[in-house]
């Protein structure tokens, strides 16, 4: 990597840290890098992974990052893509040096002229290596920078699981060592793809509104939504997170609420005495604007010896953003965080103890949003009031995630006109008693 590139990248990093109010770079925590990833995505629409940002800020790289990453960083810092920023920086550097010629002796002029000529010879090579599109001299063939990548998909089933999805892609023009297709946020659902092929199939075992990613080395170069719908509620468990176990309807509790018992979990290999996740999904197009809605539900958890802080995550996924609301047991406020659109609340740096309750009894929960102004209530009392700017848009998924044995009931989703668009009291699951 050329020294000029390294110096310019350091300048970009310093400017970004200042813009994001993260100045003590050596003391950054995981949360700081997560915030930086969100900050960059909000400014540019390009999502850079936490691992990529850690590598860049720790200077743990042998060559320049991918051009799409450089473009995102330089856009945040100076509102220019990398090539334009570099060209402008070189021009400014040469102008400063040219202005100093009057003070240079004859011998120094000859020496400087050699350096300048050498620099002019090096610039074309550097720009070609980073995918530059500018013709440096008359008669030189142009090299087009790749800005668009072909990426599409076709579902093989509707409202059924598992569901094989056929991904179509074109990566022939991209320069990278390795390529991957990742079906969602879950890195364990990543598969390698290769040049010379145009299709790859992958299986979705749970429903959801996912963002599939096309990755060159470790950089996301293209994303697209994949909506895996299902005709009913869907129950799954993970232990560990890379291992997904699903449960047919005939294994659910025969109660007037939705749940599953420890014996059934054990029959599928889930050890409730070790860490596991239990999830409930309902995924379809609900016809509700995520920026104007009312959502209500009841929930509780059963006590487990190995779970000191029982926590429930309520997830409403829109086409452009989402709600991620964590409710925990009394005393566990520090473990909570909330993401609502572009607004993030962290229990480590903010008092979220109002979002704690007795998780071992039935509780009532409500989200009420009007024009991006959000009010969250637990058992009739407001526990969080906030607002956001970036639209969440149409709701495509409702899901719950528990770090133990969780139960839900009385789910209701209304639109901005208070019209009920979805509700379930789970009466149909109750075991019939003559």
Q: What would you say about this model in short?
A:
With 434 residues, the chain is α+β, with helices and mostly antiparallel strands. 23% of the residues lie in helices and 33% in strands.
List the helices and strands and how they pair.
Layout: H1 3-19, H2 30-44, H3 50-57, H4 67-78, H5 82-99, H6 106-129, E1 150-155, E2 163-170, E3 179-182, E4 190-193, E5 199-204, E6 208-216, E7 219-228, E8 234-238, E9 244-247, H7 262-267, E10 277-283, E11 293-302, E12 311-318, E13 322-329, E14 337-340, E15 343-346, E16 356-357, E17 363-370, E18 373-378, E19 381-387, E20 395-402, E21 405-415, E22 420-424
Parallel strand pairs: 13-16
Antiparallel strand pairs: 1-2, 2-5, 3-4, 3-6, 6-7, 8-9, 8-10, 10-20, 11-17, 11-21, 12-13, 12-20, 13-14, 14-15, 17-18, 18-19, 21-22
Please explain how this structure is put together.
With 434 residues, the chain is an alpha+beta fold. It folds into 3 domains: 3-129, no CATH class; 150-228, Immunoglobulin-like, CATH 2.60.40; 234-429, Sandwich (Jelly Rolls), CATH 2.60.120.200. 23% of the residues lie in helices and 33% in strands. The chain has 7 helices and 22 strands. The protein has helices spanning 3-19, 30-44, 50-57, 67-78, 82-99, 106-129, 262-267; strands at 150-155, 163-170, 179-182, 190-193, 199-204, 208-216, 219-228, 234-238, 244-247, 277-283, 293-302, 311-318, 322-329, 337-340, 343-346, 356-357, 363-370, 373-378, 381-387, 395-402, 405-415, 420-424. Strands 8, 9, 10, 12, 13, 14, 15, 16 and 20 form a 9-stranded mixed β-sheet that branches. Strand 13 and strand 14 form a beta hairpin. Helix 1 (3-19) packs across helix 4 (67-78) and helix 2 (30-44) packs across helix 4 (67-78). The longest helix has 24 residues, at 106-129. The radius of gyration is 26 Å and the shape is globular. The N and C termini lie far apart (78 Å). The model is unreliable at 100-146 (pLDDT under 50).
């Amino acid at each position: 990597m050329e020294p000029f590139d390294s110096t310019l990248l350091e300048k970009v990093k310093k400017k970004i840290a200042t813009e994001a109010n993260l100045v003590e770079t050596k003391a950054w925590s995981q949360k700081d890098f997560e915030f930086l990833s969100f900050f960059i995505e909000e400014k540019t629409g390009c999502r850079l992974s936490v691992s990529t940002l850690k590598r860049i800020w720790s200077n743990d790289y042998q060559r320049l990052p991918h051009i799409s990453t450089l473009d995102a960083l330089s856009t945040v810092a100076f509102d220019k893509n990398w090539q334009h920023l570099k060209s402008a920086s070189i021009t400014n550097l040469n102008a400063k040096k040219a202005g100093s010629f009057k003070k240079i002796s004859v011998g120094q002029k000859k020496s400087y002229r050699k350096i300048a000529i050498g620099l002019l010879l090096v610039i074309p090579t550097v720009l070609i290596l980073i995918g530059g599109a500018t013709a440096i001299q008359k008669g030189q063939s142009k090299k087009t920078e790749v800005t668009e990548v072909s990426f599409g998909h076709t579902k093989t089933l509707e409202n059924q699981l598992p569901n094989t999805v056929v991904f179509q892609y074109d990566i022939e023009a991209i320069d990278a060592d390795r390529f991957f297709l990742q079906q969602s946020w879950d890195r364990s659902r990543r598969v390698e793809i290769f040049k010379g092929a145009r299709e790859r199939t992958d299986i979705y075992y749970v429903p959801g509104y996912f963002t599939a990613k096309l990755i060159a080395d470790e950089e996301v170069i293209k994303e697209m939504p994949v909506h895996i719908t299902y005709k009913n509620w869907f129950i799954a468990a993970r232990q560990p997170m890379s291992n997904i176990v699903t449960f047919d309807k005939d294994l659910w509790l025969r109660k007037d609420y939705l749940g599953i018992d420890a014996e059934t979990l054990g029959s599928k290999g889930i050890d409730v005495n070790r860490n596991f996740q239990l999830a409930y999904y309902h995924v379809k197009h609900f016809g509700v604007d995520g920026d104007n809605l009312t959502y209500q539900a009841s929930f509780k958890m059963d006590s487990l010896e190995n779970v000191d802080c029982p926590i429930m995550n309520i997830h409403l996924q829109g086409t452009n953003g989402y709600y991620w609301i964590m409710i925990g047991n009394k005393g566990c406020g520090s473990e909570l965080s909330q993401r609502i659109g572009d607004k993030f609340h962290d229990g480590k740096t903010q008092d979220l103890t109002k979002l704690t309750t007795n998780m071992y009894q039935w509780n009532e929960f409500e989200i009420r949003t009007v024009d991006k102004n959000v009010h969250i209530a637990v058992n009739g009392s407001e526990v969080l009031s906030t607002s956001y700017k970036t639209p969440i848009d149409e709701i495509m998924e409702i899901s719950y995630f528990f770090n133990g044995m969780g139960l839900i009931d009385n789910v209701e989703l209304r639109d901005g006109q208070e019209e009920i668009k979805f509700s379930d009291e789970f009466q149909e699951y109750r075991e019939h008693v003559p």
